[in-house]
Amino acid sequence: MILDGKKIKNQILDELKDEVNNLTIKPKLVVIQVGNNEASNVYIKQKNNMCNYIGYNFEHFKLDEDTNIDNLLELIYKLNNDDSVNGILVQLPLPKHIDSNKIINAISPVKDVDGLTDTNIGMLCHKKDSLYSCTPYGVMELLDRYDIDVSEKNVVIVGRSDLVGKPMSMMMLNKDATVTICHSKTNNLTEFTKKADILIVAIGKPNFITTDMIREDAIVIDVGISRTELGLCGDVDFDSVKDKVKYITPVPGGVGPMTVAMLGKNILKAYKLQNK
Ligand code: NAP
């Protein structure tokens, strides 16, 4: 069975739209982009569309590729102090001359709608309510909306990035799953993936996970997105795997839309945190 991220995203956006409709002052998202990365342009357009649909205000700062870090920091500090701005998102990747970690951590944690500051990641580790990283948060929400309980399950995550794999592991741990994290130095990967009740793959290698690597009736969450000649492609060889598993997310239409939906949720949460 397909876990339909697009359908769930639409449900979530409608719920948010209803709530925002009752607010006199609308929450505002600011997206900062440095350079003109093509994929970033697409992602920012999706975020803009999401904001328009829900009724959030949206502003996009597009800075030159050669912008220096001080200019970027100055803009972030200004937005941190601007009460009309509830969410600040720096579109990644940044050009190589800019230290992404320094930039992300310059964002006020209560406006960090991407949930990537050390503060928000730390809060997640300590199981405190915070702004959560949108992609793993989207995976949790998708499973929840399909009534899939992760407690006591063997969850195997392939990929250990700060953006996906690490926060994903914490969210699963916080929900009482038994978590294994694999990465490029893992020996005998299949030994681990075959034990997964829930397999989450976030490595960026098209069709890497094949049917022989998966247990029958597993739940497979494909976070990967690669642009290939045949279009967008996930990390899981969907066609060969789909009949063996209990649930699977498609690419596109699985985790991607959920990421946008959770950004929508985080913007309203940030607004509430700032207007307690
Ligand atoms: P990343 O920072 O490049 O991390 C990739 C991870 O995969 C690393 O931990 C790496 O291990 C591991 N890896 C690479 N090759 C491997 C292999 N052969 N076996 C096992 N592990 C391997 O990537 P990311 O930002 O997490 O993104 C991963 C994918 O998800 C990309 O396709 C990205 O486009 C997609 N993504 C999608 C969404 C969405 O909304 N759907 C959001 C974010 C990312 P090491 O740590 O050992 O190098």
SSE blueprint:
Blueprint: H1 5-21, E1 28-34, H2 38-54, E2 57-63, H3 69-80, E3 87-90, H4 100-104, H5 118-125, H6 134-145, E4 154-158, H7 165-174, E5 178-182, H8 189-193, E6 198-201, E7 219-222, E8 226-228, E9 231-233, H9 238-241, E10 247-248, H10 255-274
Parallel strand pairs: 1-2, 1-3, 4-5, 4-6, 6-7, 7-10
Antiparallel strand pairs: 8-9
Helix pairs in contact: 1-10, 2-10, 6-7, 6-10
This protein binds NADP nicotinamide-adenine-dinucleotide phosphate.
Describe this structure in words.
The chain is of the alpha/beta class. It folds into 2 domains: 27-108, Leucine Dehydrogenase, chain A, domain 1 (Rossmann fold, 3-Layer(aba) Sandwich); 134-256, NAD(P)-binding Rossmann-like Domain (Rossmann fold). It is 40% helix and 16% strand. The chain is built from 10 helices and 10 strands. The protein has a 5-stranded parallel β-sheet with strand order 5-4-6-7-10. It has a 3-stranded parallel β-sheet with strand order 2-1-3, with helices on both faces. A two-stranded antiparallel sheet has the order 8-9. Strand 4 (154-158), helix 7 (165-174) and strand 5 (178-182) form a beta-alpha-beta unit. Helix 2 (38-54) crosses helix 10. It is globular, with a radius of gyration of 19 Å. The model has no long low-confidence stretch (mean pLDDT 97). NADP nicotinamide-adenine-dinucleotide phosphate is lined by residues 135, 158-161, 163-165, 182-186, 189, 202-205, 223-226, 255-256, 259. NADP nicotinamide-adenine-dinucleotide phosphate (NAP) binds at residues 135, 158-161, 163-165, 182-186, 189, 202-205, 223-226, 255-256, 259.
